Amino acid sequence: MDKLKINGGAPLDGEITISGAKNAALPILCAGLLTADTLRLTNVPQLRDVLTTQKLLQGMGVRVMTDNVHEFELTANQVSSLVAPYELVKTMRASILVLGPTLARFGEAQVSLPGGCAIGARPVDQHIKGLQAMGAEIVIEHGYVKARGKLRGARIVTDMVTVTGTENLMMAAVLADGVTTIENAAREPEVFDLAECLNKMGARISGHGTDTITIEGVKSLHGATHAIVPDRIETGTFLCAAAAAQGRVVLRNTRAGIMEAVLDKLREAGAYIEAGDDWISLDMKRRPKAVNLRTLPYPAFPTDMQAQFMTLNTVAEGTGVITETIFENRFMHAPELARMGADIATEGNTAVVRGVEKLSGATVMATDLRASASLVIAGLVAEGETVIDRIYHLDRGYEHIERKLSGIGANIERIS
Ligand SMILES: CC(=O)N[C@H]1[C@@H](OP(=O)(O)OP(=O)(O)OC[C@H]2O[C@@H](n3ccc(=O)[nH]c3=O)[C@H](O)[C@@H]2O)O[C@H](CO)[C@@H](O)[C@@H]1O
Ligand SMILES: C=C(OP(=O)(O)O)C(=O)O
């Protein structure tokens, strides 16, 4: 099993090109199921989760062409299976995103329930409730959600802001008979990106980017070409790395406008940030100042950046209080960071991080995707060698992270 070996303390200075967003690419790949025509996607990140989605879609009979690793052509004109099997769903929760489009187009779908994962229980009751409101008959049997029925427009108010739930329901509603409104909808840029792609395919969606999305159902969708939005979490991760290491970085092919909450916190930590249409630069000339933060749905501070900021706080001046409100078990990086000398006290959904002068390298274990990213940042600033085990989590969501970091001066390599 691959590991990452990092020798901490190398100065970071240089440029990195940001990939397309995992959390936009996965739903948009599933949107390929909504039409018999070809959906052409560019800026698709090269990730394990993308490969898993490709396998899932191919298993259903979707033709997937990838001449260039970042460009995909999906053609769902010979769909032969309406089932998303447990073997794939268990490795990637986003598989639940085939439920809405498959049911909408074929009147039937069976998707394995994803179950809980390391960071929380993550139920899908809101997806089910919304589809039932649209007229689907749903049973849970043998670990699968089995749905059938002709969908009709409905008013749906979700109990909480759910990103995947909003995406699934939006994809279901585009082919439903009549108008659907999703209230308390997620406003994440990745939801917006999916809606934009669906509209290019002939859907009639408005209000995306606000908390009320209106979808006027159409008879069928057609092919389109769409470029995946840049990954704001990958962007934020590299910005945090440069800030923690008191370095400089210029990130290309990214967008400042979709990550203001993160940029504000980095400025509060003492970073000097500039941005243009498709780039962001960060210059950190001092030891970071600790920041307090609370994770919340977009446009507030994202849960997917919580772990990376925890590492920033571990080497900061002062004490930072972090409150995680989205997932009930998303502090698993804290004990690993403590093994590197961090001073973190967690209680419930709050972590109090007292900055220390130095972390020291150690062998640590990645427990989930963003926890892994936080350990990479810790390794970059720690004294001595850090070995990170179980980096398959990292490969789900970061394209060639070791290559990108080596490019700005980090001493990091993948070992077997
Ligand atoms: C609102 C939010 O920040 N969502 C994050 C969530 O999206 P993801 O789509 O995975 O999760 P949701 O947005 O659906 O979940 C938000 C919260 O609602 C709960 N829930 C959700 C659906 C449902 O049917 N029932 C239910 O109880 C979840 O357990 C969670 O506590 O994880 C992703 C991966 O880390 C992040 O990129 C998203 O930013
Ligand atoms: C936890 C994440 O992804 P997933 O929802 O695919 O588990 C993430 O993107 O941080």
TrEMBL record:
It is an enzyme of class 2 (transferase). Phosphoenolpyruvate binds at residues 22-23. The active site is at 117 (proton donor). Its EC number is 2.5.1.7. Pathway: Cell wall biogenesis; peptidoglycan biosynthesis. InterPro entries: Enolpyruvate_Tfrase_dom, Enolpyruvate_Tfrase_sf, MurA_subfamily, RNA3'P_cycl/enolpyr_Trfase_a/b, UDP_GlcNAc_COvinyl_MurA. CDD domains: UdpNAET. It is found in: Cytoplasm. Residues 7-405 form the Enolpyruvate transferase domain. The modification 2-(S-cysteinyl)pyruvic acid O-phosphothioketal is found at residue 117. Cell wall formation. Adds enolpyruvyl to UDP-N-acetylglucosamine. This is UDP-N-acetylglucosamine 1-carboxyvinyltransferase.
